[in-house]
Amino acid sequence: MRTSLPLLTSEQLARLPERARNVVEYRKSGLSLNHVQGCPLDCAYCIRHTYGLWDQRVPRALMTDAEAVDELVNHRYFQPHITPVQLFNRATDPFLPAVRPHTFAVLEDLDARGLRNHVLVITRHQMKTEDAVRLNGLRNVKVTLLFTYSGIDNKDIEPYPSTVAAQSLKIMSAAVGRRYRTVLYWRPLVPGLNDSPEHLATAYELSKYADATVFTGLFYRDEIAEYYQVNGLPEPYDETARRKIVPETLEERVLSTFAGSSSLFRKTSCAVSFAHGEPDYNGHYGIPELCDICPLAQLDLCGSRHQVPTARRIQEVARTLPDANGLVVVDITEGAAVVSGLKEEQPRYYLQHALGFQVHDVRHPHRDRRHGRADIGWKEATS
Ligand code: SF4
């Protein structure tokens, strides 16, 4: 397998921040593979700030694609045909010209192994009809292209125009006989920046091209807030949060603009699963407040597969993971298992995907109507 980017030397690798050295990491929507890092697109709110990688503007490879795929499929969290995979979603854009060959190499390698896992590929870059042809050559992996579109026109915050992603979404959705799915990944929605009635109406029109749309807010973490302050950018909020921020009134306005839509979702996994005609792989069905905008047929599909696991079953699955051996099942409801004893979040995501059921950490409770979201901007916030 050919690698077009030069590989980092072992000295350069050793100088990377520790989190950046972990090329496989479990995040909420899937096991994420990131052996290429660096991006010149300069979105001010980029998650690279939190990995100590902001200054890395040129994509670099930490290992070959073959080595990276091996590391992924042999990872303790990887389950063939089950674990959703995310490709280059943390440190680069998968369709930058220098990254594109790596993206296809990984997809084709996974596909050649006969794996039927979901693979989520998030991009804001230009895509072309020849990309559709190549993606259509994949027979096994279930690919979803998620087009990051915000409509933000402040060039200090988002120098690379959202119109490119909009155009890519249209091109890739129009391809005849395509096997992959397309999602309008409408984010980050920020009050006062990209939530005017015109912004919402434009997003609604764009959503008609996609198989599904998901809307979400901004990850406003400490490192990102610091960058905004140092660079004199207008700060969207006066505090930071560990979850994404979607204020209540903004959500209401989105729902009312999309009243005529039957493919709008609050959760990425719901949009991806719907687009492939499958029940939500994150098991959100047990949280009814998330499902009130879902098409009835999809609601039925998720309902028919929804199964509340027993504590014994949860422990059985956890036993396969060394980093889950302190797990305690605190409570099980119709919607989620509440657990304690996990040092970090990754094993919890593994359990969630293995069980197809929500697994929450007792230290981070979800509030009514704010599942997975920060309290900022909600009237009844209690913490
Ligand atoms: S029914 Fe609920 S869990 Fe299933 S896709 Fe719809 S919103 Fe998601």
In short:
This is Radical SAM protein. Keywords: Iron, Iron-sulfur, Metal-binding. The chain is α/β, with parallel strands linked by helices and 383 residues long.
Question: Your description of this structure?
Answer:
The chain has helices at residues 10-15, 18-21, 65-73, 100-112, 129-135, 162-174, 197-207, 222-230, 248-257, 268-275, 288-291, 296-305, 311-318, 346-355, and strands spanning 24-27, 30-33, 36-37, 60-61, 85-87, 118-123, 142-149, 181-186, 212-215, 264-265, 328-332, 336-340, 358-361. It has a single domain (10-281), classed as TIM Barrel (Alpha-Beta Barrel). Helix content is 32%, strand content 14%. Helix 3 (65-73) crosses helix 4 (100-112). It has an 8-stranded mixed sheet with strand order 1-2-5-6-7-8-9-10, sandwiched between helices. A 3-stranded mixed sheet has the order 11-12-13, covered by helices on one side. It is α/β, with parallel strands linked by helices. Bound molecules: iron/sulfur cluster. Iron/sulfur cluster binds at residues 265, 267, 270, 273-274, 280, 284-285, 290-291, 294, 298-299, 302. This is Radical SAM protein.
